[in-house]
Amino acid sequence: MTAIVLLGPPGAGKGTVAEALAGKGYTHVSTGDLLREQIRLETPLGLEAKANMDQGKFVPDKVVVGMIRSLLESADRGQKFLFDGFPRTLVQAEKFDELLLSLEGAIDGVILLECPAEVIVERLSGRRTCGKCGTVYHVKYNPPAMHNICDTEGCELIQRPDDNEETIKKRLEVYAERTAPLISYYKAKNLIHPINASRSIAEVRSAVLEQLG
Ligand code: AP5
To answer: Which of 96, 107, 189, 201 is most enclosed, with most CB atoms within 10 A?
Structure first.
């Protein structure tokens, strides 16, 4: 079992890169998507997660690590994972290492998507998502064929509740405080591959593909 980790601030384009890599043999795991699914199903885990997510705070480490543990323990030995939004605290990174070791897996590389705050605010405020298939669009940079309608499902697109200006600011603060330290953690392990993510979607995609070989 091997894993690629996509690291970067909210809105840097982790989900978009992951979608672009669909078909390359990776299983895409987005902890944000897994948590939103729990919210949709109104499970106790979802209710706990929603209170944190709506305020731009992190969901507790034990909840997220528990979700990843169940997923990896039922995975195939040869499976290749693409993690988007996990790990995002030092505790999660350490638990992830322990878990992979126990399953004879390893992290192949950590793709760091670097993007300045002003680009992020524009990307997140223009993001629209399909509530049915999860496809992510942008009103300017990746619009659907018909205004605000999903190309695949034909339904109206929605705006995520945490994509308002105040919550975006909070998410960026939490990223700087709790996730940015992972850059040194993975640098020390010689796993970091920085990518300039403020370029176009196509350019970022090719840069990531080049890194993955
Ligand atoms: P999550 O869903 O993971 O959100 P995030 O990390 O804040 O990242 P985003 O999904 O907002 O952005 P992205 O980098 O994927 O960008 P995207 O590709 O969509 O997590 C949400 C919440 O869940 C967290 O705040 C937390 O509460 C909780 N959570 C999740 N994981 C957790 C964990 N491990 N521990 C604790 N809590 C956790 O792109 C953004 C927009 O820009 C789109 O519109 C896209 O079309 C556009 N775009 C993308 N790339 C480009 C480009 N190159 N050029 C132009 N536009 C672009």
So the answer is: 96
- pLDDT tens string 165-207: 899 999 999 999 999 999 999 999 999 999 999 999 999 999 9
Catalytic residue among 36, 88, 95, 128: 88
Ligand 1 centre to CA of 98 (Å) is 26
Total residue count of the chain as it appears in this document: 213
Give the residue extent of every domain in the chain.
2-115+179-211, 116-163
Q: Which CATH code fits 2-115+179-211?
A: 3.40.50.300
Outline where DSSP puts E strands in the chain. Answer: 2-7, 26-30, 80-84, 106-114, 127-129, 136-138, 192-196
Eight-class DSSP state of 161: T
Residues near ligand 1 (Cβ within 6 A): 8, 10-16, 30-32, 35, 52-53, 56-59, 64, 85-86, 88, 92, 123-124, 126-127, 136-138, 141-142, 171, 200-201, 204
| Nearest-5° Cα angle at 159, 127 to 135 | 60
Question: For residue 136, how far is its CA from the centre of ligand 1 (angstroms)?
Answer: 10
From CA 155, how far away is CA 207, in angstroms rounded? 32
Cβ contact 69:99 at 8 Å: yes
